[in-house]
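HUMAN: Mind sharing a backbone?

ASSISTANT:
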Amino acid sequence: MRRVLDSISNIFKIPDLRKKVFFTIGMLLLYRFGGHIPLPGISLSGLQRAFGSAEMGGLFGLYDMFVGGAFSRATIFATGIMPYITASIILQLLGAVIPYFQKLQKEGEEGRRKITQYTRYGTIFIAAAQSFGMVTYLQNMASHADFMVIAPAFIGWKFTIMGVLSLTTGAVLIMWMGELMTEKGIGNGMSILILVGIVSRLPLYITQEVVLLFEGGRSIIAEVILVIGLLIFIAAAILLSQGTRQIPVQYARKVVGRKVYGGSSTHLPLRINAAGVIPIIFASSVMFIPAVIIGFLPEGGVKNVLNSVFSGGSVIYNIIYAIIIIFFAYFYTAVIFNPIDVAENMKKYGGFIPGRRPGKQTSDYIEKVLTRITLPGAIGLALIAIVPVWFMQGLTGGSGMAYALGGTTLLILVGVIIDTLQQIESHLLMRHYDGFMKKGKIHGRR
């Protein structure tokens, strides 16, 4: 424990790392501040009565947790980072099927700059559509409820225009903050924004569990089982995030004058879950699209059926969710890891895999191994995303705790924290400071 505390103190001894950490904290404070600014025309008292009359659950409850409660508070940051993630998914999918975007992906920095620009345009369009769905949802809530969610002077087209403009502007501001955090801060800005939204809701759900325990609504045995199950799921998520397959690599010996170079043996680590937490975030973003579409529909049978199908606990929802996670695990692994480039670099520096010829045979072997180990990794990712929610719903009776510490949020928490620690540890070791762990269990260590 003391070693970890010393490592944390060392963070603030490195000027560059200290600047990154403080910049990230500043952006997070700005994000949390915007998450409490309500839309123009919103009646806060009516909104509290509306959401207080029935606890949000299912897809809306999960979405509200991702944005740190900004949706239930109807704030300007209610769209969260999801429009940007959805636009990123669309651009990456287009890069797999459209030659123009494939060409941009291979053009290096200039191509990435153009793809980023297209992603920003897509974010604005998706945010506007999502904002209209949210505004329609709020107006429908006000039309059939006994409470007044919207101030009478703003009901109608005034609230629609101002609400869409405010929410879209908020989504663009969040996108800007996330990109700045990735560029000038520490960790992946988009992932950290989601992490903060989830963490901000945890004290509320933990307080609810404590109150239930003291009031007799929850037994001590149930709480102990809940904590043990949670620790098991966290351990499984960490193992899945850090599990690797080591491929032996041998480097040929070269004699230059009187010196001998190379001749060493090393390993090529292939992660079981090479895509990290990205498949979960992408799949969650895709599963939020039906909620936006449902928001446009009038009250009636079709809307009720879709709500039941796409509620977080339904079997159909979980099957679709698992399929999308497995798809994005394979897809994103193919995007970030190119076996041909790895084989060429290995050949360039005189490296080879024993029993495999350098070049195409090596790249085919790496791709074969990667395809095989990605399957159990993707299935494990889907199981951890779904099983903890079922476990906690059965144990807690479907309370908010099931979504706060369910599989999706658990994997995001573990994945983002590990990725951020890897970046911080690499900075510490580069400046000759000790890392967080004595034996280097974090695979990001260099």
The chain has one domain: 2-430.
